[in-house]
Amino acid sequence: MKKRSLENSQPTPIVLTIAGSDSGGGAGIQADIKAISATGSYACSAITAITAQNTQGVSAIFPIPLEHINNQLDAVFSDLNIVAVKVGMLADSEIIKVVAAKIKQYKPTFLVVDPVMVATSGDLLLQESAINTLKSELLPLADLITPNLPEGAALTGAALPTCEDDMGAMISALRQLNVKAVLLKGGHLEQDENSNDLLIFQDHFELLTAKRINTHNTHGTGCTLSSAIASYLAQGNDLQQAVTRGKQYISSAIAHADELDIGSGHGPVNHFFAGHANV
Hints:
Elements: E1 14-22, H1 28-38, E2 42-54, E3 57-63, H2 66-79, E4 82-87, H3 93-106, E5 110-113, H4 131-138, E6 144-145, H5 149-156, H6 164-169, H7 171-175, E7 182-185, E8 194-200, E9 205-211, H8 221-234, H9 239-255
Parallel strand pairs: 1-2, 1-4, 4-5, 5-6
Antiparallel strand pairs: 2-3, 7-8, 8-9
Helix pairs in contact: 1-8, 2-3, 3-4, 8-9
Domain Pyridoxamine kinase/Phosphomethylpyrimidine kinase: 22-270
Enzyme class: transferase
GO biological process, one term: thiamine biosynthetic process
């Protein structure tokens, strides 16, 4: 079959998400694909685990066999021009090692790691023994990691921040993780009027602020934000632009979340609040 002419077409920004599947559709691979698509890129995926999950929580996790994770990654990297990779849920040390080895092998231009350890519901999604493997094998390869406050505490051994001053006190420890940049998300400080994040570089940091939205429908916010950032990086934005646009996107998706009526627990954000237009 003859391929269509590509003379007048622009390269398609392709983003790979490596993460777990959420059977409820609100987080994980499903949220990633929605966010990448809604922000104007093409999404491909490699599934690391299958969760039995809904808006009320996670009831079971089945890690994908290592050989098949390898096969998925070889399949997409060998054929698709993947510019950015977003990594989410990695259930154990061996999966982390496989993913890190493939990132080193194929060398995508951008890597965003959402160190998924604790779901919004409080369920533990990463074995505690795997945290050190994550820190030594994968995080040093990342252009950006996007921990929430419990994840930041788990990565650094610091106490869980209860205010913005505590977030600031965590900056030094986060810089010691040997990553290029950290987006520390302050969404768990629910008593604050704004939802403030810290974009932390080795030599400076910036405060990113947005009005806090009063909604219970926040399932998949971390997955969605990190995927949107990877999408904007793939489109040629620099890191600060990609993070700023990603925060604007997730803020709007949360603001429109109550337009959806999904499940009886923490519902998903509204990924397609603007149709398929680039945000």
